[in-house]
Design goal:
The protein is an alpha+beta fold. It has a single domain, classed as endopeptidase fold (from Nostoc punctiforme), CATH 3.90.1720.10. It contains five helices and seven strands; from the N terminus they run H-H-H-H-H-E-E-E-E-E-E-E. The chain has a six-stranded antiparallel beta barrel. The longest helix has 24 residues. It starts with a helix and ends with a strand. 30% of the residues are buried.
Amino acid sequence: MNGKRVGKTGRAAFVLLTAVLLGACAAPARDVASRQAMEPGREQLALLEVKQKQAKGQRVWCVPFARTASGINLRGDAKTWWNKAAGQYDRGNTPAVGSVMAFRATRGMPLGHVAMVSELVSPREIKVDHANWSRNEVSLRMAVIDVSARNDWSAVRVESRPENFGRVYPVTGFIYPQQHR
């Protein structure tokens, strides 16, 4: 009888351990990989640069903030980042933590815009860190929702005020921080 108890206990422990291990495997691979690809301290460095510029009375722009925060070493107006990333960085239409979302130029944003993905909330919602969405300020963990008809992140709304998503903005895609070698 004692042997049966050990057997049942052993089987129960095995089932429990298997469930725990399988649950750990369910984490989205891209999110885990992106977090590992991010360099620690980049956001703090970007925020320090912003404070230094503001102390000197200089304007804060989205491009230098995104470059420092993400480690994606591209220069030029935000509207040029997507094409400049070709051949240097992976690009796609799936958000990943640490990637940079490239907005298309519009009449209201003739230079385009870039924002670093800081959190994946759901398949259709992310949070971003970016500069100059509100003039000369940094916005951290700002919600962005995918409103594209094909669920491909080609059109988004940005939460400019709590629970108030603004107009639709066109997005070119996401630039991932691992540079090609």
